[in-house]
């Protein structure tokens, strides 16, 4: 599958190479380092773009100024110039409305464009990206290497790119690192690389996040192994109003499902019907914490934790309920008692790490699915069990314990039967302990 490469000119006179694949609805990719046409030619983007084309999308991507097949002598490599590149490609393609995806250094231009032109962006997808470039550099080992060795980049360009590529591959594959280093050298000059790195580090679109008004999906793409993007992406998602968050190893599927939500016949992830394992989590003494930290600080910490918990739940094959937020509780459903218990224990650790310990309770029973929520007496019991737990403690009903006692790899301490408000009969409760 070979892309059709064309050229357009930005409003400040820079020639930009762009390409298209497929014939479906358009999704525009805000380019990353080295340029996406250049990366595609080096085989690094073929499976991803090809999977989207197979799902019926028209993929539009380009090389930014100073890189790849675009004009190499451009000087404005900062955020302003990158936005002009994106605008020029969008105008050249001629689509009035499109999905927009920004990954890594392509995220901030995509964020800025969606704030400036919300009427044109149908969906915004942000993958392993950031709002503040300084945080990005601190999170990714290879970028720290690039920063610390930049004083030798011009004079020892080959050595510099090899050091960077080895860091990006965790020093685990010499041949892959050599190929990656060659791709960098072919895609950008040492001077442009340094200028671009410095511009990224100075980028900060944090103030724009609250103004994003288009449907937004923030993705932690776990298949990208150059660094751990989990904290960057959960933090980003917590700052964007109504943003979705997902951690996945199948990025094309996650993007496709998000952009097709609500379509007739579109596949959606159904909540479990009938019997489900129900997890309820709530911050311990949130009122006192709000008074101590202040409302704004508490809400920021709570949103960050909420995003982290939803990641943990999905990683353990659970379904977090979108209508339930921290402060009122995080509610999730599972089909496996073992996975639900493991998720609850991981949630407890996340709460401790955030300085916001949690009450955690699990129950199993019938639930009623309605829209994007679940209801029923079993949900109420899970919430009541959660309220009985000490900070960071995971309590389960006798039903959950019976389902999981031979497979969860934990032990259970009997706390006896407990009377609960709104529940007709006492419920036998067990405390989960790490296996000794």
Describe this entry's structure for a reader:
With 436 residues, the protein is an alpha/beta fold. The protein has two domains: 4-259, Alpha/Beta hydrolase fold, catalytic domain (Rossmann fold), CATH 3.40.50; 274-434, Nucleotide cyclase, GGDEF domain (Alpha-Beta Plaits). It has 16 helices and 16 strands. It has helices spanning 36-41, 46-54, 79-93, 107-116, 133-139, 141-148, 157-168, 174-187, 190-202, 230-239, 251-259, 286-293, 295-315, 337-354, 377-388, 398-404; strands at 4-9, 15-21, 25-30, 57-62, 98-103, 121-127, 216-221, 244-248, 274-283, 319-320, 330-334, 358-370, 373-375, 394-397, 410-418, 427-434. The strands form two sheets. It has an eight-stranded mixed β-sheet, with helices on both faces. Strands 9, 10, 11, 12, 13, 14, 15 and 16 form an eight-stranded mixed β-sheet that branches. It starts with a strand and ends with a strand.
Topology:
Blueprint: E1 4-9, E2 15-21, E3 25-30, H1 36-41, H2 46-54, E4 57-62, H3 79-93, E5 98-103, H4 107-116, E6 121-127, H5 133-139, H6 141-148, H7 157-168, H8 174-187, H9 190-202, E7 216-221, H10 230-239, E8 244-248, H11 251-259, E9 274-283, H12 286-293, H13 295-315, E10 319-320, E11 330-334, H14 337-354, E12 358-370, E13 373-375, H15 377-388, E14 394-397, H16 398-404, E15 410-418, E16 427-434
Parallel strand pairs: 3-4, 3-5, 5-6, 6-7, 7-8, 12-14
Antiparallel strand pairs: 1-2, 2-4, 9-11, 9-12, 10-11, 12-13, 14-16, 15-16
Query: Quick one: biggest sheet?
Result: 8 strands, mixed
Strand content: 15-25%
Arrangement of strands in the largest sheet: 1-2-4-3-5-6-7-8
Structural class: alpha/beta
Overall spatial form: elongated
CATH class of the largest domain: Alpha Beta
Architecture (CATH level 2) name of the largest domain: 3-Layer(aba) Sandwich
Radius of gyration, taken over Cα atoms and rounded to an integer in Å:
24 Å
Distance between the termini: 55 Å
Mean pLDDT across residues = 85
Number of strands: 16
- CATH fold name of the largest domain: Rossmann fold
């Amino acid at each position: 599958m070979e892309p059709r490469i064309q050229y357009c000119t930005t409003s400040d006179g820079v020639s930009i190479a762009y390409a298209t694949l497929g014939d479906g609805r358009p999704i525009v990719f805000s380019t990353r380092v080295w340029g996406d046409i250049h990366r595609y030619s080096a085989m690094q983007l073929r499976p991803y773009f090809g999977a989207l084309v197979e799902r019926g999308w028209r993929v539009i991507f380009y090389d930014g100024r100073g890189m790849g097949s675009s004009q190499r002598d451009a000087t404005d490599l900062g955020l302003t110039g990158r936005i002009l590149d994106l605008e020029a490609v969008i105008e050249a393609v001629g689509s009035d409305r499109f999905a927009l995806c920004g990954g890594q250094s392509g995220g901030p231009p995509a964020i800025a464009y969606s704030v400036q032109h919300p009427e044109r962006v149908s969906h915004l997808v942000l993958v392993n990206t950031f709002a503040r470039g300084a945080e990005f550099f601190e999170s990714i080992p290879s970028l720290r290497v690039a920063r610390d060795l930049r004083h030798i980049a011009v004079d020892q360009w080959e050595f510099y790119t090899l050091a960077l590529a080895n860091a990006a591959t965790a020093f685990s594959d010499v041949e892959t690192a050599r190929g990656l280093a060659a791709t960098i050298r072919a895609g950008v000059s040492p001077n442009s690389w340094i200028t671009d790195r410095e511009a990224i580090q100075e980028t900060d679109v944090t103030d724009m996040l609250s103004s994003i008004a288009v449907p937004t999906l923030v993705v932690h793409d776990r298949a990208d192994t150059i660094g751990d993007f989990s904290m960057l992406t959960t933090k980003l998602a917590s700052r964007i109003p109504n943003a979705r968050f997902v951690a996945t190893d199948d990025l094309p599927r996650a993007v496709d499902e998000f952009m097709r939500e609500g379509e007739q016949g579109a596949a959606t992830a159904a909540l479990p019907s009938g019997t489900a394992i129900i997890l309820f989590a709530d911050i311990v003494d949130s009122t006192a914490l709000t008074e101590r930290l202040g409302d704004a600080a508490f809400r920021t910490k709570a949103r960050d934790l909420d995003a982290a918990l939803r990641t943990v739940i999905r990683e353990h094959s659970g379904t977090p309920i979108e209508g339930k937020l921290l402060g009122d509780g995080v509610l999730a459903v599972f089909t496996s008692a073992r996975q639900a218990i493991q998720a609850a224990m991981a949630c407890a650790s996340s709460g401790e790490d955030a300085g916001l310990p949690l009450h955690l309770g699990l129950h199993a029973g019938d639930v009623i699915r309605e829209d994007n929520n679940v209801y029923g007496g079993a949900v109420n019991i899970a919430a009541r069990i959660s309220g009985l737990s000490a900070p960071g403690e995971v309590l389960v009903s006798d039903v959950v314990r019976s389902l999981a006692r031979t497979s969860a790899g934990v032990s259970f301490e009997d706390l006896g039967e407990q009377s609960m408000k709104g529940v007709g009969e006492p419920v036998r409760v067990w405390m989960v302990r790490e296996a000794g």
